[in-house]
């Protein structure tokens, strides 16, 4: 049994909480008049809805994204979608400018999950690899090549994946072959799941719909 592994973006979470704090204080000021008289005009209402939309973006982009792995499989939670993949459905894990997991999808076809966490541009990835090579030189040959956050996360996931693979005994070739065939057959029947996150979608759609309504009201009045 392995302990759950959870990978999040610290910078993203700090920025999200900073915005949420800012939004809550400003909404409280509009409603309760913390720094002056309360304001209930159409303009104030529009500002409040914009703050709520910002909160939705902070939640979906800053707080939701995560890579979580346990004994059962790996979960990739992106801003709007949740991807849950049993280890038997995983076909490969790579870490370049993003953590990418190839897996058997719900319909049996191969799909690729690209994690939002640690996602970087190719240029930023090249800079990170250059820093890793410099660190390798400083540590007198200790292998740090590719030890960027993305590559390291992919490495850890691959280590867990290998531990979850069924073990066969080399001393009994026939039994080992049968066990391998049985494991491959079981893998073919295991599927990953891709679903939309209802809370994430609602947190964006509701403020956007409210802005449209307010725009119509403002145009009519």
TrEMBL record:
Protein name: Low molecular weight protein antigen 6 PH domain-containing protein
InterPro entries the UniProt entry points to: CFP-6_PH (IPR019692)
Keywords: Membrane, Transmembrane, Transmembrane helix
Domain Low molecular weight protein antigen 6 PH: 64-133
Residue segments, region Disordered: 163-184
Keyword Nuclease: no
Membrane-spanning parts: 14-34, 40-61, 196-220
Superkingdom per UniProt: Bacteria
């Amino acid at each position: 049994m392995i302990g759950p592994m959870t990978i999040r973006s610290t910078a993203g979470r700090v920025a999200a909480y900073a915005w949420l704090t800012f939004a809550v204080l400003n909404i409280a000021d509009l409603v309760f008049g913390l720094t002056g008289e309360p304001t209930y005009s159409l303009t104030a209402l529009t500002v409040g809805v914009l703050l709520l939309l910002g909160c939705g973006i902070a939640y979906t982009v800053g707080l939701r994204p995560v890579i979580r792995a346990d004994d059962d499989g790996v979960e990739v939670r992106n801003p709007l979608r949740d991807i849950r993949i049993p280890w038997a459905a995983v076909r490969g894990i790579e870490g370049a400018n993003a953590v990418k997991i190839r897996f058997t999808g719900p319909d049996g076809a191969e799909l690729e999950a690209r994690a939002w966490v640690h996602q970087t541009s190719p240029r930023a990835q090249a800079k990170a690899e250059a820093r890793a090579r410099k660190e390798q030189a400083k540590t007198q040959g200790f292998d740090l090549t590719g030890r960027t956050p993305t590559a390291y996360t992919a490495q850890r996931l691959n280590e867990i994946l290998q531990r979850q693979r069924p073990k066969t005994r080399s001393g009994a070739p026939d039994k080992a072959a049968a066990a391998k065939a049985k494991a491959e057959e079981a893998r073919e029947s295991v599927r990953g799941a891709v679903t939309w996150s209802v809370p994430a979608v609602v947190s964006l759609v509701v403020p956007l719909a409210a802005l449209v309504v307010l725009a119509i009201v403002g145009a009519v009045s």
